[in-house]
């Protein structure tokens, strides 16, 4: 990680008040602005149910590294992240002719998955790995010119992750945010 890099952690959880996992990860990341970690709860940031596109673009353009943190919903992301991509990552700004605002920035996903990790393989219950299910995000990263990094993935969160395991995961998350991000 380059010296004085800014990391934007964009959290997309529609029910943060009921969240145990994503709320804990978000709390762990908050309070480290002095280390360049800037956290934004995107659902809480909505005003009049509209995304402030210029504000979002300025925020992410001003950072070197981007994290999209979300719970996996139906093998994808919550609806606000998809809408955010549609509205914020515009042609001519994030991709296409002159669309290089995010080019060269790093992108990492931080994903919580309800089912156990062993269910996510070709012979498992779901027939796909979590990485395979995240392929559309990697394709988006390629389109917008960001460097896609290995996702931070927590599996089995619906089956009652212990407080001790959650605390370790939160510390690991902060360490990940502060360190070098491995390639995918």
TrEMBL record:
InterPro entries: Flavodoxin_fold (IPR003680), Flavoprotein-like_sf (IPR029039), KefG/KefF (IPR046980). The keyword Oxidoreductase applies. The keyword DNA damage does not apply. SUPFAM superfamilies: Flavoproteins. Keywords: Oxidoreductase. Residues 6-175 form the Flavodoxin-like fold domain. This is NAD(P)H-dependent oxidoreductase. It comes from Bifidobacterium asteroides.
